[in-house]
Design goal:
Layout: H1 5-14, E1 22-39, E2 66-72, E3 77-85, E4 91-99, E5 116-124, E6 127-133, E7 159-167, E8 170-175, E9 179-182, E10 188-191, E11 198-207, E12 210-224, E13 231-247, E14 250-259, E15 273-275, E16 281-283, E17 285-296, E18 301-313, E19 324-339, E20 342-355, E21 360-373
Parallel strand pairs: 9-15
Antiparallel strand pairs: 1-2, 1-3, 1-21, 3-4, 4-5, 5-6, 6-7, 7-8, 8-11, 9-10, 11-12, 12-13, 13-14, 14-17, 15-16, 17-18, 18-19, 19-20, 20-21
Length: 374
Amino acid sequence: MKKLALLVAAIGTAFGANAAGTSVEFGGTIKLDVLATQYQDGEAPESNIKEYASPVSIPIGGDNSQIGLDFTAKQSRFHFKTNTTFSNGDQLASYFEMDFLTDSGDEEYSNSYEPRLRHAYFTYNNVLAGQTWTTLMNVDALPDTVDYLGATEGTIYARQAQVRFNFGNFNVALENSQTDVTNAVGVTIEDDNGSVPDIVTRYDFASGENSFSVGAVLRYLNYDVQTSAINEDKLAGGFNIAGKLKFYDDNLSFSYSYGALGRYLGEGLISDAYVNDRGTLSSINIKAGYVAYKHQWDTSLRSSLIAGYWSAHSDEQAILAGQNREVSSLRANLIWEPHPGVTFGAEVSHAKREVSTGEKGYVDRAQFSAKYSF
């Protein structure tokens, strides 16, 4: 990110960041997306699927297909970053970022959208406190996409408040807990009464130019709703293996996850647990992942081929009737970067969502983007 000298100086003075040893940086991204989408099994819902790959919103069961064209700049974002070195050698850094990818606003005349918080955290030496990506997520192994995420269904994706401790290649964190439970009548309820944080760990290691990570999460799932006589909890967990392999100028990124990872995968395609016929909690195991190959045609032109997959299984199909069972996607792109920070991209994709009753929905999309990062 390049420093904008005049703005940085003004911000630094306003916030007292002109003290010795402190630097302030302002940056962001301006992005336009144009998405032409065919929803093959019904009308598109009023959701984020119009702005990026959101598999939970793929229509199913409709009589007719629908074609939609959307222009949006909602993925544009801005951030502030500070770094301070104290006289005794201690290090302090902070990061604050917002974007506009919300459901607010309209497309009638103003196209105004409310900003939302993405990241707000600081680090003091080896301790991080605030909101950012879950420790389970290996950001360095994400595919190179035109879409916001791409293989959303196979991606560990969560930003949440946490306290994280770094010990070289090893990280351990206490992160905000949340349990989504499908009750005995098939209704999913969000229970935010958790009394125990999620315990998340990740170990990063490298071999030459290749990088890898192994992570795990231990969760205390809880169901305590005032309108229900059930007060249940269950210990559950899951793991993730991710990495990036270098092949000259090309690379292969991958991720594989398994376990009770409900809300950690694919924007919560299924609940974390359900109330079984005994009136107790049973967790839902998920397996998901992606593989992405990026080819560098020359110094300014590159392409990626990306495949993603997600599936869930439960013995209580009657309770989970109509909930998601399997999601997959395939996409290919071409990205031109004529100058550092300036990219133009095109991407085509095909995605499928299947529910436990066997019904399926398909989406085909062509997406174009223009992006400037500063």
